[in-house]
Specification:
GO terms for molecular function: DNA-binding transcription factor activity; transcription cis-regulatory region binding. The protein is α/β, with parallel strands linked by helices. It has 3 domains: about 10-70, Winged helix-like DNA-binding domain superfamily/Winged helix DNA-binding domain (Arc Repressor Mutant, subunit A), CATH 1.10.10; about 80-185 and about 325-355, Rossmann fold, CATH 3.40.50.2300; about 185-325 and about 360-370, Rossmann fold, CATH 3.40.50.2300. The chain is about 40% helix and about 15% strand. The chain has helices spanning about 10-20, 35-40, 45-60, 100-110, 125-135, 155-160, 185-200, 215-230, 255-270, 280-295, 325-340; strands at about 60-65, 70, 85-90, 115-120, 140-145, 165-170, 180-185, 205-210, 240-245, 275-280, 305, 320-325, 350-355, 355-360. Strands 4-3-5-6-7-13 form a 6-stranded parallel β-sheet, sandwiched between helices. A 6-stranded mixed β-sheet has the order 9-8-10-11-12-14, sandwiched between helices. Strand 5 (about 140-145), helix 6 and strand 6 form a beta-alpha-beta unit. The longest helix has 19 residues, at about 255-270.
């Protein structure tokens, strides 16, 4: 049994014994192992074992008789409020997040865990408040898709270090030994980069954010660098345009959007790429607008490819892409969480899942394209 530093040992042993009783490991009418045996099993003191067994007795799960031992009286399931889990998402988009939330809720419910949903709105203070509210609600564990930034909430770090049940989704925490469920972003991005390179696109431009930084976006960019480094046309620094200053959660007014779109147009005019790589669907929407305003035909004048497009909207705004398996991510996250809560060993603390490559025809072979002066 792996212990958490977040709660007293006797409480953890109490919960483990309760779990084993519910699972039938200690049948009704049978006796629990003697205190000395439990001390050896859990490697704790007699007082710690006594406190744990006394908690079982106080809930009527066992009865203790001097000279006889401790007899199991009944099984007991945790009441719904005691099995509540929490989930914190920065927001939801049809491209990524909406299906994840539905699948996460369904998968948790099938395991008997209702879910409290909180949204951080890509705001640091709001994320911290969401964490505190879930702790105040006495949730047993928290799923979190962290904000897009290079530093992490101190309370989140404290919970992970104290081994409170936390499963991080989608964006790994660099340098932190967290439990994680998400896409294998490196393999996925390499697949896309290899497809674009194979189509003969030597001069590409990866469009990213000016201020936003997270492990997923960084890995996607690194994958393109790695793949193109093996070709005769490795990417220069100018191939990475960190020019987008708005986000899906923060785009104050039309002027800010117009300025981002103009920066994309300037990038196209200056670098003359044959293909634009968009790191997420929000950037994809801005790139689409920029190319339309410039009167460029996709894919004959310029190609567009990227990650996590909104596949439910009209085909004209889709682009060749890598799509994450949100259902599998949710199922893996819930599986990891239930193993933690039931004190089962984790074969892997990190689950990285494959994605799908979808060709929507927005990138063609370089030889079929027009030559842009």
């Amino acid at each position: 049994m792996e212990y958490s530093t977040y709660k007293p040992l006797y409480e953890q042993i109490f919960e483990d014994l309760k779990t084993q009783i519910n699972a039938g490991h200690y049948p009704i009418g049978e006796k629990l192992p003697p205190e000395k045996t439990l001390m050896g099993t859990y490697k704790v003191s007699r007082i710690t074992v006594q406190k744990a067994v006394n908690l079982l007795a106080s809930e009527g799960i066992v009865t203790r008789r001097a000279g006889v031992g401790t007899t199991v009286l009944k099984k007991t399931e945790l009441s719904p409020h005691k099995k509540m889990l929490g989930a914190i998402l920065p927001g939801i988009l049809e491209s990524f997040g909406a299906k994840l939330l539905i699948c996460l809720t369904d998968a948790a419910a099938k395991k008997g865990y209702p879910l409290i949903i909180k949204f951080s709105g890509e705001d640091e203070d709001q994320e911290n408040q969401c964490l505190q509210e879930l702790l105040d609600a006495h949730v047993k564990g928290i799923f979190i898709n962290p904000l897009q930034r290079s530093f992490y909430d101190p309370l989140l770090m404290q919970l992970i270090l104290k081994k409170f049940p936390v499963v991080v989704i989608d964006k790994q925490l660099v340098g932190i030994d967290e439990v994680f469920a998400g896409t294998n972003h490196l393999a996925s991005a390499r697949q896309l980069a290899q497809q674009i390179s194979a189509l003969g696109h030597q001069n590409i431009c990866v469009i990213g954010y000016h201020d936003v930084s997270n492990s997923t976006l960084a890995i996607r960019q690194e994958a393109f660098s790695q793949v193109y480094a093996t070709t005769d046309y490795p990417l220069k620094a100018s191939a990475f345009a960190h020019i987008i200053e708005t986000t899906y959660a923060h785009h104050d007014g039309k002027n800010a959007l117009a300025e981002d779109i103009q920066r994309i147009k300037d990038c196209i005019m200056t670098n003359k790429p044959t293909c634009l790589i968009v790191l997420d669907s929000y950037i994809g929407s801005l790139v689409r607008e920029a190319t339309m305003e410039m009167g460029l035909s996709v894919p004959l004048d310029i190609g567009i490819a990227g990650f996590d497009p909104n596949n439910d909207i009209i085909r004209s705004v889709r682009y060749t892409c890598i799509v994450q398996d949100e259902e599998a991510i949710a199922a893996s996250a819930v599986d990891l969480m239930t193993k933690i809560l039931t004190n089962k060993p984790l074969a892997n603390r990190t689950v990285k899942l494959p994605s799908r490559y979808i060709d929507y025809g927005t990138v063609v072979n370089r030889g079929l394209m027009h030559v842009i002066p």
